[in-house]
Each structure stands twice: as structure tokens, then as C-alpha cells.
Write a structure and sequence with these properties.
Blueprint: H1 2-13, H2 16-33, H3 35-38, H4 72-108, H5 110-124, H6 128-139, H7 143-169, H8 173-180, H9 185-221, H10 233-240, H11 250-277, H12 279-299
Helix pairs in contact: 1-11, 2-4, 2-11, 4-5, 4-7, 4-9, 5-7, 6-7, 7-9, 9-10, 9-11, 10-11, 11-12
């Protein structure tokens, strides 16, 4: 098992796109953790008169100011905190719940498995974004309620991944051998099957984190997410849309770019993890690297 993870780690490091995504996430994490020291201004300080809607690069404001005179760069930096929290925490909690539900449904099948998966099918009947909007509207605006909404929305999708992998694993010989030796069902499920379904869940969950960032930003954009004066990229884009047609597109454009970059970084990592954990994909990566080396030698 240790050798398998070492091979996967090396395959991940050889994927330049995935490594670039990881560096972006690490940079974002650093900004979130040290925002108070990095941000040049207080993100909620309101200015008057000529300090409002200053273009990028004006009077010490690298990215300009918004319609209330607040420094956009500082708000983008502090907005990283809410974006990472709303992306990572729901995925981690949803993954934990999904492992329990998916393993149970896939291992026992029968009535228990059917009941769990039919419940998940109820959530699949609604588009994820509309379901998130409905739950957030019922719970009310705020970061905590957004996190709860995203957990509820993500659990069915992640449970389906675990369930599918568990069905395949439960038919393999090592499970039959464990049953023959009298090992308990719980031990088989969580000590032997779980390690084999985690790679798919990790890869899928990382990709979902990027989608979650966009969804949470959308909820904030329509007023159901993080509330002012807290710095949030979706809310910043919403506020900037009010002055978009007045020649101040940067107020909306800058937080929009931040949302795009961070969500895309999670997608790059997710693809890299999937390729690194898949033996077939690892062999393809090795073959491509071998061909590139041969071409380099021939060119030399």
C-alpha cells in the first residue's frame, strides 16, 4: 500500500498542470491565513468622495476601489477565507457522510442499500444549483447556512461514487476471504473496503470543491450567501454589477477572475489526483514522458 501511494505521489508531481493547481491552492491558503498582515488596507473601511471607484493603480490602490471606497485588493485577499471555507468544509463533511452511506448501501445491498440509494435519488431529481438555492433560501443567508446547504447538495453525488466502488470491491476475492475467516462486517467495510474506495472519492471531491466555489459565489451574488460587510467574491461581483455600465467593469471583473482561478485550480488538482491514482493513467503518463525524452534526445 505504501509503495502504491509513493507511485501515485510521483505521478502527481510529474503532472505539471496538477502541480500548478496545487501551488495556486497553497498561495490562496497563505493569503487566507495571513490576510490581516498581507492586505494593505482594512477591507471594510469606507471612504468618501474622490476615493470611490478609483481605477486600478490609483493612489496606492493596486486594484482600485469599489463604489464605497473600499480597497478591492484587500477585499479579494480577505474573500479568500470565505471561498476556501465554503469549498473545503462542505466537501470534507459530505465525504465523511458519504463514506458511511455509500459503504453501507454497497456492502449490504438488499433493503438497506435500496432504501439509502432511493433517498439519494430524491435529491438527484432536482438540479444541484436549484436545490442549493432552495435550501439556502429556507435556512436564510449567511456563511454557516451556505455550508449546510452545500453539504446537503454534495452528499448524494459523493455517496453514489462510494456506492459504485463498494459494489465492485465487495465482489472481489479479498472480501470473500475476509468473510471466510470470520472477520466482522464493520471491519471489512471500514478497514478493507474504505481504503480502496477513498482514491476515487478524493479525486471526485477535489473536483467538486471547485464547483462548490462557483456555486457559493452564485448564492452570494443573489444575496443568499455571505452578507455585507464581510468580504466575499460573489458579493463583490454582485455589488460591482451595479456600476458595470458606468465604465467600472474592474469592480466585477477582478473578483470574477479570482473565482475562476481558484475553482479551476481545484479542478486541475482533481484531474491530477485521478490520473495519479489510476494505474492505467499512470502508465499513459510514463509513456508520454518516455516519448518526450526520446524526441529530445533525437533533436539533440
Amino acid at each position: 500500500m505504501a509503495n502504491k501511494w509513493m507511485l501515485s505521489w510521483r505521478a502527481f508531481l510529474s503532472d505539471k498542470v496538477a502541480v500548478a493547481g496545487a501551488l495556486i491552492i497553497l498561495l490562496s491558503l497563505g493569503l487566507a491565513l495571513f490576510a490581516s498582515w498581507i492586505a494593505p488596507y482594512d477591507p471594510n473601511t469606507v471612504a468618501e468622495g474622490s476615493s470611490r471607484l478609483m481605477p486600478p493603480g490609483s493612489e496606492g490602490h493596486l486594484l482600485g476601489t469599489d463604489q464605497q471606497g473600499r480597497d478591492i485588493l484587500s477585499r479579494v485577499i480577505f474573500g479568500t477565507q470565505n471561498s476556501l471555507i465554503s469549498a473545503v468544509i462542505p466537501i470534507i463533511i459530505a465525504a465523511a457522510v458519504s463514506v458511511v452511506l455509500g459503504i453501507t448501501a454497497g456492502y449490504f445491498q438488499g433493503f438497506i442499500g435500496s432504501a439509502i440509494m432511493r433517498l439519494m435519488d430524491v435529491f438527484f431529481a432536482f438540479p444541484a444549483v436549484l436545490l442549493a438555492i432552495a435550501i439556502a433560501a429556507i435556512l436564510g443567508p449567511g456563511l454557516l447556512n451556505v455550508i449546510i446547504a452545500m453539504i446537503i447538495v454534495r452528499v448524494p453525488y459523493m455517496t453514489r461514487v462510494v456506492y459504485t466502488d463498494t459494489l465492485q470491491e465487495s465482489q472481489k476475492e479479498y472480501v470473500e476471504a475476509a468473510k471466510a475467516f470470520g472477520i466482522s462486517d464493520l471491519e471489512i467495510m471500514f478497514k478493507q473496503i474504505v481504503p480502496n474506495v477513498l482514491p476515487s472519492l478524493i479525486a471526485y471531491g477535489t473536483t467538486l470543491a471547485g464547483v462548490t466555489i462557483v456555486t457559493v459565489a452564485g448564492l452570494s451574488f443573489i444575496g443568499l450567501g455571505v452578507q455585507p460587510p464581510a468580504a466575499d467574491w460573489g458579493r463583490m461581483a454582485s455589488d460591482g454589477s451595479k456600476v458595470l455600465m458606468q465604465g467600472h467593469a474592474y469592480v466585477t471583473f477582478i473578483p470574477g477572475i479570482a473565482i475562476l482561478i481558484l475553482s479551476f485550480a481545484f479542478s486541475m488538482i482533481g484531474d491530477g489526483i485521478r490520473n495519479a491514482l489510476d494505474p492505467h493513467e499512470r502508465s499513459k503518463v510514463k509513456e508520454k514522458k518516455k516519448r518526450r525524452n526520446e524526441m529530445a534526445r533525437n533533436a539533440a
